[in-house]
Protein: NYN domain-containing protein
Organism: Ramlibacter pallidus
Amino acid sequence: MNHPSGAEPRSVALYWDFENLHASLAEAREPGVYGPGNRFKLQEPLVEVDTVVKLAATFGPIAIHRAFCNWQFFARYREALMQNAIDLVQLFPPGGAAKNGADIRLCLDAMEDIGRFPHIGTVVIVSGDSDYMPVAQKIKAAGRRLVGVGTRAATNKHWAGSCDEFRYYEDIVAPA
């Protein structure tokens, strides 16, 4: 495709901390329900996957599309995930209370990808977790634009502030 400037648009890398977004929405719907007793069972779909993908596509063509989660509990998202050609990264927690596996893997993948693929101009991270602040600094130091997406109630204000742009999930799914 030819563009007026003669240059191809820079691509987007979209990374989901999927359980983080799902848990935030579940907690907003029914506070206190997304605890250990309910976390490790089949989850009802709450995330509007298509809407987040459409937002990411406004920044350029999506070249990398990866979501990190323990997918055994999120099978009901199968159709939406497959329709959007998301590369699903399965993470089995090493213990019942284990956390941060998705955070660490997402950060490692994002850094490796921007190092390997110079055509990535925008990185979109779907999470409200402050654990992503160090990777935000690295992404911006590499000259890439960082867009965050998270829920209003569960997003750490420092994480949101570390992004070049932050969009609240509720705003992007609200009917126009």
User: Anything to note?
Assistant: Helices lie at 18-29, 36-39, 49-57, 78-83, 101-116, 133-141, 157-162, 169-173. The two ends are 30 Å apart (CA to CA). Residues 24 and 31 are 10 Å apart (CA to CA). The chain has eight helices and six strands.
